[in-house]
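Note on ligand handling. Small-molecule inputs were canonicalized before submission; formal charges were left as drawn, and no protonation-state enumeration was performed. Where a ligand contained multiple stereocentres, the stereochemistry in the source SMILES was retained. For zinc ion, this procedure yielded the string shown in the input block below.
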Amino acid sequence: MSNNQHLFSKGNLPAYPIEVTHPEITRFKHSNTGINYVHILDSGKDGPTVLINALMHGNEYSGAVVLSQLIDSRIQPSCGKWILSFANVGAFATFDETNPDVSRFLDVDMNRVWSNSKLESGNHVKELVRAREILPLLKEVDYLLDLHSMHEECEPLMVSGPTNKAYQFAKLMGFPKVIMRDVGHADGKRLIDYDFFGDEKKLPIGLLIEAGHHWSKLTIENSQHTLFRFLMSTKTIDIQNVPENFQQKVPQVEVKVTHRCVAKSDDVQFVQNWLGMEIIPKAGTVIAYDAGVAIQTPYDDCVLIMPSLRHVLPGVTYVRLGQQRPI
Ligand SMILES: [Zn+2]
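Structure output:
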């Protein structure tokens, strides 16, 4: 490491402005499902059951803004049912603009609890209690869209997980540009990996959108576009209810995650302020230092996916590496 090289660490990252204030959602507490903050819109006609979920992470409220807009718009499904869910409302209720990252969860990350072993355990941490409330409705879902956002300002990524069925559906949607294929997390299952969603032989499809930076206006627009393309692809929305700019598809690329860089220390530094989707041409390029040890790209044209040092600790993934190809 050269002495005069400027390095980025969690202590000297620029803070992002909060462009979108957190939404008021208490009017959605009482619902027709008997589960607080989970609503069903039923067309009364045969068709698929579609679940749109927001607030899996309490500080990622762009999805809640978009879901609120959908409910307030009074648009109804043209067939089948929509289940509209605000998941970790307990964590969201603690959101504090002066310390915006801490409301991600209360006890444990709610997007790591979606395995039968955890859901059926005797553990009563708050996120598991909430997950068990929502669980009975999952069994009837055909299509799931889970609305998330990212620590850094980055173009939107559709996470299709490990299954080909979800990847094919993300291609059918045609938005956003990047479809990220990965195998999930070692420390627990995401909702999109839960049981039948993660089973290639079963029909239900689960997708997770990382729509942009948590509190940026652009993230709202990306979330809206994704939501409408998703509903169009499930064939449960009348086209006249979809704004014309959100009907558009874009050319897509596939990014396959091949490696995860997991911090060995809390002293991880980047050689640039990586934001995500940078393509590093040469194998062996140093991208970071972990406790002074150089971390190099393993192959040419390596894509950096969701790099972030904001929450780095030993055991935390601070960047994923992948290979990109046009679709
Ligand atoms: Zn998230």
